[in-house]
Amino acid sequence: MPISVCDRLAELGEIGRGERGLTRQLFTEPEHRASALLARWGRELGCEVVQDHIGNLFIRRAGRTDAPALQFGSHLDTVLDGGAYDGAYGVAGGLTVLAELAAAGVQTQRTFELAAWAGEEGSRFPVGCLGSAVFAGWEHLDEMLELHGDDGMTLAQARSGPYGLLPDVPVRDDFPRPAAYAELHIEQGPVLERQSIPLGVVTAIAGMYRYTVHVHGEAGHAGTVPMAVRRDAFSAAAEFALALETAARDVGDCVATIGWLAITPNQTNIVPGSVEFRIDARSTDAARLVEIDRRIHALADEIAARRGVEVDVQRFEERAPTPLDERLKGTLRETLDREAFAHIDLPSGAVHDAMCIASLCPAAMLFVPSVAGASHVGHEHTQPADLERGVQAFKAWLLAIDRAL
Ligand SMILES: [Zn+2]
Predict the structure, then answer these.
(1) Which of 48, 136, 198, 305 is the most exposed place for a label (fewest CB within 10 A)?
(2) Is residue 247 left, alpha or beta, with left meaning phi > 0 and alpha meaning psi from -120 to 50?
(3) Three-state SS at 67
(4) Which domains, ranges and CATH numbers included, belong to the chain?
């Protein structure tokens, strides 16, 4: 019997464990140890193990033909005090599929290539999906090597240090474009659990607009300035926040969050003179993003005029939604129906490596439930039965893609 995905996750989950959760940042000792463990697992299966110059690690099980590989994967790095399933599930699940195929003597048409993408979380160096972005050509390796991490070290220094690239694994960069890409991941939200559905076909990865909003009013004595003449920057921001919540519900299939706010001067006895806050708005539908953008600007103008404050909105980040491949999603739904696994369609509000790889080849994703929707926290959890079912569904899907391509 091949080792179960739960046992593999338990072993990975001990690496980098602290009091509040798991911390495995790119090119640190725990992340290096997790990558080395994956490389060992790959070699034990008789697979080719290879890495590229940004630190993506590939476990390749040769197919009958030399046609481009069917690629699948996720990431082994974590946020600070993160959980044991985000990313690691897709990697351990993919490895489990390779182990089961090997144990059953199944020969696939295409090479099955498991990728553990480097630095997906951006928790040490300030670029998310670092490894998959370099692989997909979104970012240039040489520029990325100059990035400074949160400890001041450059990526180049970290990569050549004791916890950089794996010393016993060949390095190359001449990977041909994969034929297709599939990613197995925990949902990181509450939708599947609330509906008691074990599997989710991901429709698209949400696009995102991020803004900084400055509200300038007038500071004053909290005891002497009458309510009627105040230009309270915080009250204006608070009104903006509630109106934004209504706008996002109104637009539909859209989420908008104000997760960061700073009041100046931030004193109990002073009417706030200025407030700065940030908005994160997401949708899988580009038209809805345009609509929430229009409403954000309209809200700013309306509140500014009525309250006599200045409201300045700057968009500082913009990413289009990533539609996932219709044919791969169709193959996934057919596979789940055939295996009698209940499933629903749902969007991904979080970013994944599949976003970058989708620009290289057809890509799609399969989600399993997250207990209480918790993720990026130490108590992140998925029930063992859901983990096992997800891997069985994923294996059946990969084999169906291999037949259909
Ligand atoms: Zn992830």
Answers:
(1) 305
(2) alpha
(3) coil
(4) 5-205+321-404 (3.40.630.10), 207-319 (3.30.70.360)
Are 27 and 164 in contact, with CB atoms under 8 Å apart?
yes
pLDDT per position as a tens digit, 59-103: 999 999 999 999 999 999 999 999 999 999 999 999 999 999 999
Which residue type sits at 71? Q
Between CA 62 and CA 19 the distance in angstroms is 41
**CA–CA separation, 45 and 213 (whole Å):** 53
The residues facing 310 across adjacent strands are 216
CA of 9 to the centre of ligand 1 (A): 14
Edge to edge, the sheet with strand 274-283 lists 255-264, 274-283, 207-216, 310-319
pLDDT tens-place string over residues 15-28:
999 999 999 999 99
Distance 68 CA to ligand 1 centre (A): 25
Q: How far is CA 340 from the centre of its chain?
A: 28
CA 84 to centroid of ligand 1, rounded, Å: 10
Residue 347 has φ and ψ, to the nearest 5°, of: -85, 160
Pull the structure tokens for residue 297: 């600007």
- Say if residues 346 and 367 touch (Cβ distance below 8 Å): yes
How many whole angstroms from 80 Cα to the centroid of ligand 1? Answer: 13
Distance CA 264, CA 284 (A): 35
CB 200 within 8 A of CB 192: yes
Q: How far is the CA of 85 from the centre of ligand 1 (A)?
A: 8
Side chain identity at residue 213, one-letter code:
V
If we measure between CA atoms, which residue out of 203, 213, 205 comes closest to residue 350? 205
Alpha helices (runs of H) in 252-372, residue ranges in sequence order: 286-307, 326-338, 353-357
The complex's ipTM works out to: 0.96
The CB density around residue 14, as the number of other CB atoms within 10 Å, is: 12
What is the separation, in whole angstroms, between the first and last Cα of the chain?
A: 30
Q: How far is the CA of 89 from the centre of ligand 1 (A)?
A: 9
* Structure tokens given for 38: 């994956």
E-strand stretches of 151-206: 180-186, 199-205
Q: For residues 81 and 39, is the Cβ–Cβ distance under 8 A?
A: no
